[in-house]
Amino acid sequence: MKALMTLSLLVALSGCANPLRGTNDLGLVVERATGSVAVVETSHRSRLARIEGLGDLSHAHITYSRDGRYGYVFGRDGGLSKVDLLQQVLVHRIIQSGNAIGGAISQDGKLIVVQNYEPGGIKVFDADTLALISEVPSYYAPNKRAKVVGLADLPNQQFAYSLFEAGEIWLTDLSDPLRPTTRRFAAGRQPYDAMVTPDGRYYIAGLFGEDALAMLDLWNPENGVQKILQGYGRGESALPVYKMPHLRGWSLAGQDLFLPAIGRHEVLVASTVNWQEKTRIPVHGQPVFVMAQPDGRQVWVNFAFPDNDKVQVIDVATLEVVQTLDVGKAVLHMEFTPRGEAVWISARDDNKVSVYDTHNFKRLDSLDIQHPSGVFFTHRSGRIGF
User: Fold this and answer.
1) 353 touches 360 (CB < 8 A)
2) Residue 34 pLDDT > 60
3) Phi/psi zone of residue 352: left (φ > 0), alpha (ψ -120 to 50 degrees), beta?
4) Would you say 120 and 166 are in contact if contact means Cβ atoms under 8 Å apart?
5) Under CATH, which number does the domain 101-242 receive?
6) The pLDDT value given to residue 59
7) What is the pLDDT confidence band of residue 250, given thresholds at 50, 70 and 90?
8) For 302-355, what is each residue's pLDDT tens digit?
9) Which residues touch 257 (CB under 8 Å, ≥6 apart)?
10) Which H or E element spans position 83?
């Protein structure tokens, strides 16, 4: 009987279009010009499939279900798409707003939250069906809604996000998703993006309107927002800002926080012991992504136009640039493999995603992908704030 059951299972599996496999080495690469994503796997550095029909992906973000099987793609056109990485198909797609800028998934994996530019606010959806559950409009004054940026998932079904025009950080509790409760905190002028420390304690928003960052201690939110790195550019002339830098990334290495400086060719380093500036590291251009390897040994930096053909590597021990790589035309994004032995870097105008060894900096491989931008691997599903 046991042998018969085993034989039946083998016959069933042999007829499957997609062989049985896990998901932790899978990922999606955004093909921004064609409204599609490439399904990739990191174990053999290969492209598996393309999933089309995802709309405007000019500023797309992707988050994953707890099991890594489903990717939720947030499009600039307000589209929310659910794709199946194992079956390699689009499961469902809705248009939920006029202009969206990303989203996140709840700690229990049951809720998808989208942050919107137009009309502003956040919307909460069922992760299985994409049915709308509730929303929190971003009214900060009569008939005035703010753009929402810097959305991050937190423990205990909470989400933090920033309101650009309002200069506020909001903390929304979705323990009862039908009845969200929200607390508001004054942040500073024009928060533009944010990150959460890996332990989920600190939410840190960059401020475009002033030389400072706004930090909210999520363990003690009643203490309000604390300004850190105040006046880091005081008395200096900033360069024109060609692209807003991103704070979301593994920019915490050891006890130091590595941050892009707006309008400057610098990476700021702050100590998380006292939240004071420790040093500034001169770099090739205006930083966009400042991302630490999973082990925190190195920090990789890419840059805004016109310096977006290179990537630099900072050694965390010495706080010096130790490598400059000529990656390709219009480098847009980077993503480390789960254990950090390699990094995938997209070069939009070369139609390439290059894979580099993080130990010796050699190029290991190059994948042909049409106008690639964001690279998102499924191991993000186990991280806070991703």
Assistant:
1) no
2) yes
3) beta
4) no
5) 2.130.10.10
6) 86
7) low
8) 999 999 999 999 999 999 999 999 999 999 999 999 999 999 999 999 999 999
9) 204, 251, 269, 270, 271, 272
10) strand 79-84
Q: Is 8 exposed, middle or buried (0-12, 13-18, 19+ CB in 10 A)?
A: exposed
Is the confidence at residue 100, as pLDDT, over 60?
A: yes
Q: Which residues of 128-166 are buried (b: 16+ CB within 10 A; e: fewer)?
A: eebeebbbbebebeeeebbbbbbbbbbeebbbbbbbbbb
Is 175 exposed, middle or buried, given 0-12, 13-18 or 19+ CB atoms closer than 10 A? exposed
d(CA 151, CA 374): 17
Nearest to 373 by CA among 122, 141, 58: 58
Identity of the residue numbered 314: I
pLDDT digits (tens, 9 = 90+) for 280-300: 999 999 999 999 999 999 999
The helix (run of H) or strand (run of E) holding residue 14 is: helix 2-14
* Residue position matching structure tokens 């947030």: 74
Q: Are 6 and 71 in contact (CB under 8 A)?
A: no
pTM of full prediction above 0.90: yes
- Domains of the chain by residue range: 101-242
Report how far residue 197's alpha carbon sits from residue 10's, in angstroms, rounded to the nearest whole number.
45
